[in-house]
Specification:
- There is one protein chain.
- The two termini are about 40 Å apart.
- A hairpin with a 2-residue loop joins strand 27 and strand 28.
- Helices cover about 30% and strands about 20% of the residues.
- It has about 900 residues and is of the alpha+beta class.
- The chain is built from 25 helices and 34 strands.
């Protein structure tokens, strides 16, 4: 058992023990999702309607096939044994065992969780965690939320739980759940319920322990068991996990049932046992005494605390889940809990600058807590799933999704975008997750990048799986950028980069790069058609579907993403060549790929339909029709800003170390007039006075023209970051006529009015954190190249001249301000909700949404997407200690300082 002394290094010591000595500090963590129902994994329907096949209403009675969910839940890292909290206020029609929300069809803006819960704290080893759930004392308005939202249109606001009035007079419970580890397999649990209302109120707390269903129809052999003898602890036995004991400090009733489907209720067939998954719900809510097992054994058990809490008062329940029997499980409880809280404080003090204001510290801590609470056990054996659907894994069936991905076996802890709205991994989301996660757990972050490149994930043809609904879709190729970021960060921290990590990633990324070259360049002219690219509804047409015009799109963003991919891989190859000269040849090849893409981005073809529009000073997609004609789709969006993001800087050490690379590049340029013409027209690919090489897709003239639009508050520069669509389109929507039908794009600062991708995502105006971060990175690289003499007007038309470093900081500050409270306590992220601004029990709580209103910063989309919105922890700390001259002389992909070092570290 034992405890660590209270020092600022205690959590870092645990990380070192886990990484270097294999001590399993990460074995137990918040690995339950908030929602397993309605996922593709659980969908065995004929038509693939996952939301309807397995509903929230069924979830309390129907055993899951591939995972589990719960409130404030934890499990081991293979999700064999799970622990979570269930509650009942004496009025609800069902036990509250999981978060409720609307399906894609029920919400007027797509799926939407309708609960208030907050990830308040977590250390990277989960030695300490804290979670808050706000539970109403009146009957939960399930039907009101459904009916009212269904009656609203896409142009209406969403009907939220606060809007129902259920929190009026503060008649609710604040239920805090805290976990502290005395050892890797010794978990202390403290649950404190505060009655915020004026009157006494009842509350049933049911801490619940259960096994994920791995037996009978799920294919396992041995059935695990939970049992209790007399009034002792619960003992849980599993053939792989071994025994575990759950201790509780109160003499309370313990309820037992099985984690088996209630077939009678769900399918109308008989049950093999009278004790099924919803037995505890039926016992507590329905007063069915025969629904739980009187023999005190099963695969699911709950300790039933019936509390009556006076108004303004609280009650606390303590438990301990451990791998050893303890004669006195409470003896060190308070000491350990107090120490872990203090160690968590010390850990987070160590990652924020001393002068960081308290509100920004709060932002960083909650953002990173959300990142760590969003780690989830993700299990899906696709071949087995396909077989269970009656599909021959070797014979692709287009009627069943993911039938080409039979090789995939997912069986890992993964970082999820949002464990209710997106409880499945997404490739480009995950790359951005690792940037924020690297602030607290670099080893875990590196492991996440490695995961999607493993043979059980990466397709044999080289494609990286996109996301559960369609592994074969295409996300922007940012994996190499994130890999280089983490490599450079570790080298900066420790003085030594992880070459094995970098080389392993490079080999697999080159396979993926080849897949892009072979599959996404229709005409073989280095202009790419990435398709969907995660930007959902940003364009005139659905980019995942055949175009109504026929033909194809030459995508400015798809082409620019590939330019960035070339830059990243080129830098990795140069780094690896320090130890192995064989990589010089690959670096040369990648340089040539980038050069040809730069030519293609700037080329004006015979049809005068290049991606660059000289009149507008902006990049656009080009629609190429079957008859050979082409036209630009003149929508000013992030599509035209991604070329700016494809900007990297390499220090002069590379040409000194590898003169053959420089000679080869010069020979290539001189041999190809088109390349030479492109390079001679601007400084891209050329060194500055300090010998630094800028890799960019355009020169200073186009840079200034693009920046004048990006920094125009009437176009892209919003009060809370760079918008995804120019505000110009509010008064000037773009329309395109095809076969008598009109397709249009207008500025929508909040929710989308399009049903594309379910309508729960909008790239037609709101601010998105990940692309903003890439633009900040590009500005810093450009500043490192051009120096402080290069200034631009920011905002456009203001007369205020800023360096590109100052522009980057301006954008970063606007992003961060989304979450910070003003003098009145108002945080833009929470919109007009007065409760969050004025109530002392709400005002310090922050939600991290998927995207943000382009004009006022209000949070939109998924409300707990600290996946890539966890990057707010980066923007809140990025410029606190870094001055104008402290950025990398080499201009590597990371957003961290390296002083003036120009030689690679060995």
């Amino acid at each position: 058992m034992g405890t660590s002394a209270e020092t600022p290094d205690a959590e870092r010591r645990r990380l070192a023990e886990a990484d270097d000595s294999g001590v399993p500090w990460r074995r137990w963590g918040p690995y339950l999702s908030e929602r397993q129902w309605g996922t593709v994994r659980e969908d065995y329907s004929q038509g693939g309607d996952a939301w309807s096949y397995f509903t929230h209403d069924q979830a309390r009675s129907r055993a899951y096939r591939w995972g589990e969910d719960g409130i404030a839940g934890v499990s081991d890292d293979k999700q064999r044994l799970c622990f979570a909290l269930a509650l009942w206020n004496g009025r609800d029609p069902i036990l509250k065992e999981r978060m409720f929300g609307l399906t894609n069809a029920e919400g007027n803006h797509g799926e939407d969780v309708k609960e208030y819960y907050f990830y308040l704290d977590s250390t990277p080893t989960h030695s300490y965690m804290k979670y808050l759930y706000k539970y109403p004392q009146s009957e939960f308005p399930y039907e009101d939320l459904k009916a009212t939202n269904q009656a609203r249109g896409r142009g209406d606001f969403e009907y939220e739980l606060l809007d129902t009035g259920i929190f009026d007079e503060d008649r609710y419970f604040d239920v805090f759940v805290e976990y502290a580890k005395a050892g890797p397999d010794d978990l202390l649990i403290e649950i404190t319920a505060h009655n915020r209302g004026p009157d006494e109120a009842p509350l049933h707390l049911l801490p619940t322990l259960w096994f994920r269903h791995t037996w009978s129809w799920a294919g396992g052999a041995a059935v695990p068991s939970i049992r209790q003898e007399l009034n002792g602890p619960l003992r849980a036995d599993h053939e792989e996990l071994g025994p575990r004991w759950l201790y509780c400090d109160a003499d309370t009733e313990t309820l037992f049932t099985e984690n088996d489907t209630n077939n009678e209720k769900i399918f109308g067939s008989s049950n093999t046992s009278p004790y099924v998954k919803d037995g505890i719900d039926r016992y507590v809510v329905g007063d069915e005494t025969g629904a739980v097992n009187p023999d005190r054994t099963g695969t699911k058990a709950a300790v039933h605390h019936i509390l009556t809490i006076p108004g303004g008062q609280s009650a606390t329940v303590r438990l301990r889940l451990t791998a050893t029997e303890l004669p006195d499980w409470t003896g060190d409880f308070d000491t350990v809990m107090t120490q872990r809280r203090a160690e968590a404080d010390a850990f987070y003090d160590g990652i924020t600058a001393a002068d960081t204001p308290a509100d920004e510290r709060r932002l960083v801590r909650q953002a990173l807590a959300g990142m760590l609470w969003s780690k989830q056990y993700y299990y899906l054996d696709v071949e087995r799933w396909l077989t269970e659907h009656g599909v021959d894994p070797l014979a692709s069936d287009p009627r069943v999704r993911n039938s080409n991905w039979y090789h995939m076996v997912n069986d890992e802890i993964m970082s999820m975008p949002d464990t209710w709205e997106y409880p499945w991994f997404a490739a480009w989301d995950l790359a951005f997750h690792t940037v924020a996660l690297s602030m607290v757990d670099l080893t875990f972050a590196k492991g996440q990048l490695d995961l999607l490149l493993r043979r059980l994930y990466l397709h044999p043809n080289g494609q990286i799986p996109a996301y559960e609904w369609n592994f074969g879709d295409v996300n922007p190729p940012v994996h190499a950028w994130a890999t280089l970021f983490l490599y450079e960060l570790e080298k900066h921290r420790t003085g030594k980069g992880d070459r094995a990590f970098l080389e392993n990633a490079f080999q697999k990324l080159m396979k993926n790069f080849s897949w892009w070259l072979n599959r996404k360049d229709t005409d073989g002219n280095n202009v790419f058609q990435g398709g969907f690219l995660g930007l959902d509804n940003i364009g005139v047409f659905d980019r995942s579907a055949p175009l109504p015009t026929g033909g194809h799109l030459d995508q400015a963003d798809g082409t620019a993403w590939m330019a960035l991919y070339c830059q990243n891989l080129l830098e990795i190859a140069i780094e690896l060549a320090v130890d192995n000269p064989v990589y010089i040849e690959q670096a040369q090849s990648l340089f040539e790929h980038f050069a040809w893409i730069a030519v293609a981005m700037n080329r004006i073809g015979a049809d005068n339909a290049s991606l660059w529009d000289e009149e507008d000073g902006f990049f656009y997609d080009v629609l190429r029709l079957p008859d050979g004609t082409a036209t630009r789709l003149k929508v000013r969006s992030l599509v035209g800003l991604i070329p700016l993001a494809a900007t990297s800087l390499v220090g002069g050490w590379a040409d000194r170390r590898f003169p053959e690379l420089v000679a080869g590049a010069r020979e290539f340029i001189e041999r190809h007039p088109a390349v030479e013409a492109t390079i001679s027209s601007h400084e891209a690919l050329g060194p500055n006075a300090d010998g630094r090489y800028l890799f960019a897709l355009f020169g200073e003239d186009r840079l200034r023209r693009i920046l004048s639009r990006m920094l125009d508050e009437g176009e892209f520069l919003g009060p809370h970051g760079i918008r995804s669509l120019s505000r110009h389109h509010a008064e000037h929507p773009y329309t395109f006529e095809v076969h008598g039908e009109s397709y249009g794009v207008g500025y929508l600062p909040a929710e989308s009015d399009s049903g594309m991708f379910g309508g729960n995502s909008n790239w037609r105006g709101p601010v998105w954190f990940p692309v903003n971060l890439l633009l900040i990175r590009a500005l810093l690289n450009l500043h490192a190249f051009h120096g402080p003499e290069f200034t631009v007007e920011c905002p456009t038309g203001s007369g205020r001249q800023l360096t590109l470093y100052e522009v980057a900081r301006e954008i970063s500050d606007r992003l961060t301000a989304t979450f910070l409270s003003d003098a009145d306590g108002h945080r833009p992220v929470h919109g007009a909700q007065a409760k969050f601004a004025k109530d002392p029990h709400w005002k310090d709580l922050i939600l991290f949404y998927e995207y943000f209103h382009g004009d006022n910063g209000a949070g939109l989309g998924a409300s707990h997407q600290t996946g890539w919105t966890g990057l707010s922890a980066v923007t809140a700390t990025l410029f606190h200690t870094l001055g104008d001259g402290e950025w990398s002389a080499r201009g590597r992909e990371s957003l961290r300082p390296t002083g003036d070092r120009e030689e690679p570290l060995s």
